[in-house]
Amino acid sequence: MYVYPLTFYPILKERIWGGTKLQSHLHKAISSETTGESWEISTVSGAISVVNQGVLEGKNLNELIDLYPEAILGKSVVARFGKQFPLLFKFIDAKEDLSIQLHPNDELAQKRHNSFGKTEMWYVMQADTNSRLVVGFKKAITPEIYLHHLQQKQLLDLLQEYPVQAGDVFFLETGTVHAIGAGVLIAEIQQTSDVTYRIYDWDRVDAEGKSRELHTDLALEAINFDTTASKISYESKVNEITSVVSCPYFVTQQLVLEGHFHWNPSKDSFTVFMCVSGSFELLYKDEKYSYSKGDTVLLPACITEIQFFGTATLLEISI
Questions:
Q1: CA-CA to 120 of 20 to 30 Å: which in 85, 93, 99, 158?
Q2: How many domains does the chain contain in total?
Q3: Catalytic residue at 198?
Q4: pLDDT tens digit sequence for 225-235
Q5: Is 63 one of the annotated binding-site residues?
């Protein structure tokens, strides 16, 4: 296999709550003014990422993993997940509030949907004035209290709202009730899953007057009714890899790049870099590759050393 840093064609998703920031802030070639998501690296059924440059252009990620599983994923990742790419990477533009929702854990998702669960994290890239995220309950409650407030359309009274700004990070364990608020642009890292239980959608309807499906009964067994410590504190350091989130499904670190950084990872895993500000170049085997804000790069596990140049803030994700 000829190995090099891989990028993919974005898979753009129209959403009732979407906007135009994926174009104006991240230079994605959107085709509507309600584009809510750019799936950067995905192996979700029906949305398989395709390489967009180099000798492997036109190959999809599943094909590459099938041919070269250990070279792409790493031996330890293959031992755990087989030939499955275990993560999904997105940029999300919420022009309007997303629905109040949650995601099931691995056990429930496997039983009901033959899917992974959906543990995820958010990195706020940009936030309009007074924008917020809704994450978790203000205090532990009972299912009965939850259902009463849901029926009375007072669910928001029970939920914690956080004003946000660029650089804020939230880690959402499965079962956490949440919503991305209007005016927020987010980088999202999650397990490979598209299972969402929508519990309240602000009573809105689409252009045809139809409301979106709610999953009240499915959600009830999946909800965590306790409080959660979802907002993450971390320390940024220039030209150092610093820890942001570590969980059984992924490890996210940050690199604030100024000038040059020699990257030499110690783990046997693929690594993904999401550029959340600035621009940078990678030098690998005398070849230069250029990237900027909004680009997502997959370094196969067999790339064990590479040079970074530029001024950028990067999220580094591995297993």
A1: 158
A2: 2
A3: yes
A4: 999 999 999 99
A5: no
